[in-house]
Design goal:
It is a single chain. With 427 residues, this protein is an alpha/beta fold. It has twelve helices and 24 strands. It has two domains: 163 residues, Lyase, Ornithine Decarboxylase, Chain A, domain 1, CATH 2.40.37; 224 residues, Alpha-Beta Barrel (TIM Barrel). It starts with a strand and ends with a helix. It binds ligand LLP. Ligand LLP binds next to helix 10 and helix 11. The site of ligand LLP has 21 residues, from helix 10 and helix 11. Pathway: Amino-acid biosynthesis; L-lysine biosynthesis via DAP pathway; L-lysine from DL-2,6-diaminopimelate: step 1/1. Belongs to the Orn/Lys/Arg decarboxylase class-II family. LysA subfamily. It comes from Streptomyces pulveraceus.
Length: 427
């Protein structure tokens, strides 16, 4: 479904529009998001999981009103983790019952709002929150549907997963030591709560299904314990998000249908073994849906060759529009897109314009050695966790997100202006 192409004469187009034209019209830096690709990915997830499962797009990866509308049109649900994300979702018309509310420290105001509008589920993350949500729901005369987030003793990071790494992190309630069983006991005893299931999210940018399998198995074991102790079969399990995408050619992502099959098989098998009816499965992909759909377009400003080392290419953005390289040592690729070049490749580091030496966008890459100021370069796969984690560091103006589709382009998040900056500064 991807509509980025490079013609024989070197012209790069996205959604039928030449990138040079996009730069002229919308400026740089800017994120260009391929709407058809986004929608196709939503459909692929929805189709793969089918009618007996639910897909919740994780809004933290990137959220805007247009995105919320696309999700609705393509039949997805939405996971939010703050009052701000909830507001965006509701404002764009997402029905509250299709929203799941997450977070390890939801405020009382956020919980009140979520319960009042009637979100489909609140994912409870601590013992205090179990009591807090129950109390608020009761006070508001409601019974809130909730899941309990458990930590299953699997922590997945990029390519590997490490068992028993769960004790030392802030999310969820440990299965170990009977903690999660105690959380279920408490939730079942509270009138304000309708406990519908168990939630587990094991990490992000994962390629190996083994971590998910361990997670699913342990969650099903808990369901069996709950049945044995309380005579209740919880009807839902959520296995979180975290499916990896290809940032470079070394990454080999799983397809939604492979993931759906692997998760479905393991849950069915474990439930059969435990004598449980198969619960309704849900998942929460963020990166896997939006990540590959956008690229960032930058203009080259200065070029500094360092003898025997590499050439530093400075662009008009940086860590304020993509913090991932500085924060996680994330790997990206880069390409010259405003023209073709037959010049020899040179080793470059693409850096931003911020006052930090760690302000790196692409750590190691090759660009043609005739690269010049004014050239446009594109960094692909910046749809997830780039605009959503963008900052105003050095009073940078956060770039716009432009949706491109069928030869048309429209701004869905506008570029910040200096007036925006000054408006907040009321001293
Ligand atoms: N569900 C829960 C409960 C989560 O905490 C997350 C991500 C997701 C779903 C979606 O995960 P995804 O499918 O997008 O991997 N800023 C980091 C990623 C942080 C992910 C936090 N939670 C990054 O840029 O790599």
């Amino acid at each position: 479904a991807r509509t980025v192409t490079r013609d024989e004469d070197g012209t790069v187009t996205v959604g039928g529009i030449e990138v040079t034209r996009l730069a002229e019209e919308f400026g740089t830096p800017a994120y260009f998001l391929d709407e058809s690709d986004f929608r196709a990915r939503c459909r692929a997830w929805a189709d793969a999981f089918g009618r007996d499962a639910d897909v919740f797009y994780a809004g933290k990866a990137f959220l805007s009103r247009a995105v919320v509308r696309w999700l609705q049109e393509e039949g997805l649900n939405l996971d939010v983790c703050s009052g701000g994300e909830l507001t965006t979702a509701l404002d764009a018309g997402m029905p509250a019952e299709r929203i799941a509310f997450h977070g390890n420290n939801k405020t009382v105001a956020e919980i009140e709002r979520a319960v009042t509008v009637g979100v489909g589920r609140i994912v409870l993350d601590s013992f205090q929150e179990i009591a807090r949500v129950a109390h608020i729901a009761q006070r508001l005369g409601k019974r809130q549907r909730v899941q309990i987030r458990v930590t299953v003793g699997v922590e997945a990071h990029t390519h590997e997963f490490i068992a028993t790494a769960h004790e030392d992190q802030k999310f969820g309630i440990a299965l170990a030591g009977g903690q999660a069983a105690e959380a279920v006991r408490r939730a079942l005893a509270l009138d304000g709560l309708e406990l519908t299931g168990i939630h587990s999210h094991i990490g992000s940018q994962i390629f190996d299904m083994a971590g998910f399998e361990v997670s699913a198995r342990r969650v099903v074991q808990l369901l069996a314990e709950v049945r044995d102790e309380h005579g209740v079969e919880l009807p839902e399990i959520d296995l979180g998000g975290g499916l990896g995408i290809a940032y470079t050619s070394e990454d080999d992502p799983r397809e939604p249908h492979e993931i759906a099959k692997a998760l479905g098989d393991i849950v069915t098998r474990e439930c059969e073994a435990a004598g449980l009816a198969t619960p309704r499965i849900s998942v929460e992909p963020g990166r896997a849906i939006v990540g590959p759909t956008a690229f960032t377009l930058y203009e080259v400003g200065t070029i500094k060759p360092l003898e025997g080392l590499r050439t530093y290419v400075s662009v008009d953005g940086g860590m304020s529009d993509n913090i991932r390289t500085a924060l996680y040592d994330a790997e990206y690729t880069v390409a010259l897109v405003s023209r073709t070049s037959d010049a020899e490749p040179m080793l470059v580091r693409v850096v931003g314009k911020h006052c930090e030496s760690g302000d790196i966008v692409v750590k190691d890459a090759f660009l043609p050695s005739d690269l010049a100021p004014g050239d446009l370069i594109a960094v692909p796969a910046t749809g997830a966790y780039c605009r959503s984690m963008a900052s105003n560091y050095n009073h940078a103006l956060r770039p716009p997100v432009v949706a491109v589709r069928d030869g048309g382009a429209r701004v869905i998040v506008r570029r910040e202006t200096e007036e925006d900056l000054l408006r907040l500064d009321v001293g």
